[in-house]
Fold:
Amino acid sequence: MTETSIWQLTALQLCSSPDPADNLRQIADLLQQLPPARPQLVALPEGALCFAGADGANLAIAEPLCGPGASLNAQQPLQQQLSALARLHQIYLLVGTLPTLAVEAQSDERGRFSASSLLFGPDGSLLSDYQKIHLFDADVSDNTASYRESATTKPGDKITVADLGAVKAGLAICYDVRFPGLFAQLRQQGMNLLCLPSAFTTVTGAAHWHTLLRARAIETQSYMLAPAQTGTHANGRQTYGHSLIIDPWGQVLADAGTEPGLISVRIDLQEVAKVRQKMPLALHNQFICTQMTSEKL
Structure:
């Protein structure tokens, strides 16, 4: 854990393919461009290692998730490679989503994976994980038209705030952003940085992406780190791009546009305390959000 309030935040914007090896090469190349400042939290978008593939592509590469503190093994080759990248560059590396399986999957879970965000430390250890709660089942006027994430993905049932010292990173994924109750819970649990790896469609992105992300930053008075997929992918799916870094006042500090690459901003977490002191929303709030139980999911 790192107690300094000065951190570097970096978002990698990718146009990921269904091929994990190809995606890992792209990620490794972009990591060579990181600014030298440490501590640094680098976030990858949703579906960073496998995106827009044929039916079953994610399930085919899904790995067991043993949880923080456990040693990685030969059954987790992708996690081993990601861990090695974090260690090589001495960064905190948030992997937007990787398909994972419970060590002991129940019979009703077979054929479905979890969309897991995994946070690795500079020593390569797995520090925290989060499984996407809200699954994107929607109809959109784009090339794909119909999205039914729940057909292949098992929803998560826990809230995660990763304690990195001065940084308290709340983990969420893409469609989660439309459900402010989750972020109210993260704020109650101490979050000062919201991490939202995403793969918004071009249609929903143009309509809502900037508005939703700024709103979540403003209402939780937290920094926002939101890496995104961009471009036209192997199966014709189109994603919006515009990875964002936003401050607790809702100002956009960096916008990646629509090309693959990275954005990086040096922040001071004391700004969170200043904003919250001047406008103490947590003290004024008359509505306390209670956590949804796994039974309701």
Q: What stands out?
A: The helical segments are 20-31, 57-61, 77-89, 180-188, 202-220, 270-278, 281-284. The chain has a mean pLDDT of 94. Residues 6-296 form a domain with the Nitrilase/N-carbamoyl-D-aminoacid amidohydrolase fold (CATH 3.60.110.10).
